[in-house]
Amino acid sequence: MTEKVEFKKRISIEQVEEGTELAPKFDENGLLPCVTTSVKTGEVLMLGYMNAEALRKTIETGEAHYWSRSRQILWHKGANSGFVQKVVDLRIDDDQDAVWLAVELVGKEASCHVGYRSCFYRSIPTASERQKGESLVFQEEEKTFDPLEVYGNVPNPTKL
Predict the structure, then answer these.
(1) Half-sphere exposure of residue 65: CA atoms within 13 angstroms, side-chain side
(2) Alpha helices (H) along 79-132
(3) Do the Cβ atoms of 31 and 96 come closer than 8 Å?
(4) Alpha-carbon torsion (39, 44, 46, 50), positive or negative
């Protein structure tokens, strides 16, 4: 059985920034932002959030877990869709208040619940690039999977 991951108490700047102890600083909601990229392409796949349990489970299992802010539940990426994110590299930033995952995508190599490979499938043109009436430009032309096929006819969990 895997030993439970324990986080250290934050004692000093030196300990946090230069030490070898994991002492994450969760925000006022108990969350850390997590940028997730493809280990194969370097592409940014998503920005998620982790609470202490999600970070522990990610470390313990080697698969990405997040905290869903909209559903208020722990979320094992791929548990419903089969599109698991296998962690190849897990890093924490200098002041230990954000993490970065480099992942291998299992299944259709998709990360976005809307059906695209990346959650960042649109760009925002700057003023000089903008066409009349165009505020978002699709960078992924086709979806990787059909969300209805994968998730069924469930309401979109994202709050507007």
Answers:
(1) 16
(2) none
(3) no
(4) positive
Give residue-wise pLDDT tens across range 95-104: 999 999 999 9
Query: Does the predicted model carry a pTM greater than 0.85?
Result: no
Burial class (CB in 10 A: 0-12, 13-18, 19+), 154: exposed
Distance CA 97, CA 159 (A): 25
| DSSP for residue 44 | E
- In 3D space, the residue among 120, 143, 151 whose CA is nearest the CA of residue 46 turns out to be 120
Residue 55 DSSP SS3: helix
Structure tokens at 23: 């002492």
What type of residue is 95? D
Decide if 139 contacts 116 (C-beta within 8 A). Answer: no
User: Is the pLDDT score of 159 beyond 60?
Assistant: no
The side-by-side arrangement of strands in the sheet containing 32-38 is 44-50, 32-38, 99-105, 85-92
